[in-house]
Amino acid sequence: MKKKQWQGWGPGEPAEQHYLVEPRPLAGGGDIRHVSEFLRASGWQDKSKAGGPLFLESPDRTVRIAYDPHVLPYGWTIHGKATGHQDEWWLTLGRQTPVEIVAGLTDALTRPRSAHAPDVWAPLKEQRWRTPPDARHVTAVSPDGTAWMQFHQTPGGDAMWWSGAKDQQGNGWTAQFAPSTPMHLVQAFSAALASPEPVMRPRGRVPHSTQIRTTPVSVLPSQLSAWQQARIAAARAATWARNSVRSPRPRTTARPHAHAGGARTRH
Predict the structure, then answer these.
(1) CA end-to-end distance (rounded Å), the chain
(2) Could you check whether the bond before residue 73 is cis, i.e. omega within 30 degrees of 0?
């Protein structure tokens, strides 16, 4: 008897209905594995307890990321320890913050800092975000008015960043950054926030909002898997490259007691 071929994958796999959603700040939370799998592939340790919230720690144990959907108003909490010239810092993001925006920030935690001075406003200006003249604090608002990035100083002189998105029905999220949060991370966040690229959500996971635009697309499960694996592979490749640079070079010269016919050093 011939075995029946499972039709769920391969040439006969059925397409699934997904939607491209824009503007991205109103697309809803999405699949947190978009964030977590990239970090795991970058060498981060998964400290999550069985059945508990997500908890990841950086390879050098200086940064911790937690996600708990039951903690309101925030779901994401990122905390950095004091190191060298960097003070202790933290930031929080609402659970409806799109994972693509969260990943813009968390991906930056896996890369070396740029030598260029960070500019939080630059990505917003490139996408023609406007600055209301009557705003109480320095604020940039998206062209459709659904998202914002704001800077203000506390009475004590500390610089604070606040951001978020909200539709006309009141659905949305907010993000808050400690005064000591590294500025290159705030810029990475603003770049992901202002990106004009739509994000994809499966059927049933698209928020009910009159201010979003959706484009239906048919996607094969194998395509989704390939896109996810490409992102993970990129993280692993970058991690391998960084570790290769840090590791000492293998011995290439013969030891003093080795004779001419001795075995070569393995690389």
Answers:
(1) 51
(2) yes
- DSSP letter for 247, please: S
51: tokens are 């059945």
Residue whose structure tokens are 């999220």: 173
Instruction: Report yes or no: 199 and 30 within 8 Å, Cβ to Cβ.
Output: yes
User: What is the DSSP secondary structure assignment for residue 26, as one 8-state letter?
Assistant: G
* Number of residues written out for the chain: 267
Which ranges of the chain would DSSP assign to H, the alpha helix? 33-41, 99-108, 122-126, 183-194, 221-246
Amino acid code (one letter) for 245: V
Q: How far is CA 30 from CA 59, 144, 203, 222, in A?
A: 26, 22, 12, 19
Residue 108 buriedness (CB in 10 A; 0-12 / 13-18 / 19+): buried
SS3 assignment for 155-185: CCCCEEEEEEEECCCCCEEEEEECCCCCHHH
Closest to 68 measured CA to CA, from 57, 79, 52: 52
Which residues, at least 6 apart from 43, have a Cβ–Cβ distance to it below 8 Å?
Answer: 59, 110, 239, 243
Token match 């928020």: residue? Answer: 207
Tokens coding 88:
């202790």
pLDDT digits (tens, 9 = 90+) for 54-107: 999 999 999 999 999 988 778 999 999 999 889 999 999 999 999 999 999 999
The phi and psi torsions of 114 (rounded to 5 degrees) equal -75, 150
Q: What is the pLDDT of residues 174-213, one digit of tens each?
A: 999 999 999 999 999 999 999 999 999 999 999 999 999 9
Q: Give the phi and the psi of residue 229 in degrees, each rounded to 5.
A: -65, -35
HSE-up of 187 (CA within 13 Å, CB side)? 15
Tokens 């997500």, residue? Answer: 54
